[in-house]
Amino acid sequence: MRKVLVFILLSFVIASISCRRKLEFTDNPSRNIDLSTDTVTFDTVFTSIGSSTRVLMIYNNNSENLKINSIRLERGNQSPYSINVDGQAGTLFKDVEIYGSDSLYVFIKVTINPNDDSNPFFVQDRLIFNTNGNERVVNLTAYGQNAHYIIGRKGIFPDANGHYTNYYVAITDSVNTDVHWTAEKPYVIYNVALIDSDGTLTIEPGTHVYFHGGAGLWAWSEGQLVVNGTAEEPVVFQGDRLESYYHDQPGQWNRIWLMEAREGHGHSINHAIIRNGFIGLQIQRMLKDNYAAAYITNTIIENHTGMGVYANCYSIGMSNLVVNNCGNYCIALTGGGEYVINHSTIANYWTSSTRKAEALFFNNLYQNPTDGITYAIPFNCEINNSIVYGNQDNELGSGFHEGTDTLYIFRNSLIRTQRPHGNTSLYESCVFNKSPKFKDTEQFDFHINDKSAAIGIGNPVYSTGELQYDLDGVDRGNSPDAGAYQYVIPE
Predict the structure, then answer these.
(1) How far is CA 187 from the centre of its chain?
(2) This prediction's pTM
(3) CA-CA distance, 2 to 227, in Å (whole number)?
(4) Would you put residue 460 in left (φ > 0), alpha (ψ -120 to 50) or beta?
(5) Over the stretch 64-78, which tens digit does the pLDDT of each residue have?
(6) Which of 86, 160, 252, 420 is the most buried (most CB within 10 A)?
């Protein structure tokens, strides 16, 4: 029996070898490959950082087998591009077999070497295929940009045991206590950029700050962040992948985390766009008392897998603010504190996963990180001329513990909620469960149209000073709308 089995196996091997010997490849010049595209384009790629991978398909639409005589990058080893053909990396491939009616993958990346030019620039190459004397060419183009690189040593934010060592790179220290970032070049952060105690980071108009996966910006206790954007030149915080696919992908980076400020040096963020992270802003008292309020004005915080604004035991003023589309709360005001929100749009139309959290949540419970004990802390919040809405029946949540002062009031606001709302000491001149008629929630456009229930319900008392003008700079006049945007009649 064993001899029979050996004979059968040998026969199978010989038959396989015989079949393989009969495998033929046509050299007929009329037979050629097809390609999925003739141009592979990369969006902005930061110098010295590799791009995401593009895929090119090679098709043999013939019944005969083909042998691609060569696949090569025209610039060879000097090319900024790298390719991988059928699992092998290189710049030149010869006699690549592709069977009849089959296909192959080519993976392409680009890494752009830095130079002294601060302006964007192009790098190009050509991927050349030669099959049976026929040449096919794929043009490779990439748009490069120099940047300042802020590179932490390793890791992300502190672990569950509160260990911080080696997780950050300090951008302020005892020598450089006042650091300014300008719009000359973007800033790319790896891991965590730390604003240390007694240091101030000021970010000037038009500056772009890009975070690599898991990265963030962290103001340690008594450090200070000042964002000085303008309407024409906002400061932008987002992930460092600039290809169009990543334009609206949430969760690309970690968070901006601001701890307690020192007296006279409160955090302030004006005219910023903070998008596509895990938490947009985390503002939190942790190690000591907070001696200065934080102010967030004329800012858009959107598309975060966690929360847009997470506040804990703090004092914050917010106005002309749009916080939208988050996987959890858009705004969570927790651990007590004092909060004033004027002319803001809090709108949650998250669809990337199941969402159970409300758009706006507040409570007065504070867990001391030192002793782990939870305390009820006084909570005071007023929300004026604002919109709290979304795609759930109830977009307002709270969790209050008795035994401490808890005060909140909504005035002249549009709210979607199933909570009882007949108490005028909590809800003054508000409108409930009527549509704000946002222009396009899928495109994150939270301007209102002419059918909006938010039109004209605001109180001009809360639209004075800088709030006379909406987030677009439109004069609200004597009949302000609720939310960050005033409706404008089209010309």
Answers:
(1) 15
(2) 0.82
(3) 81
(4) alpha
(5) 999 999 999 999 999
(6) 252
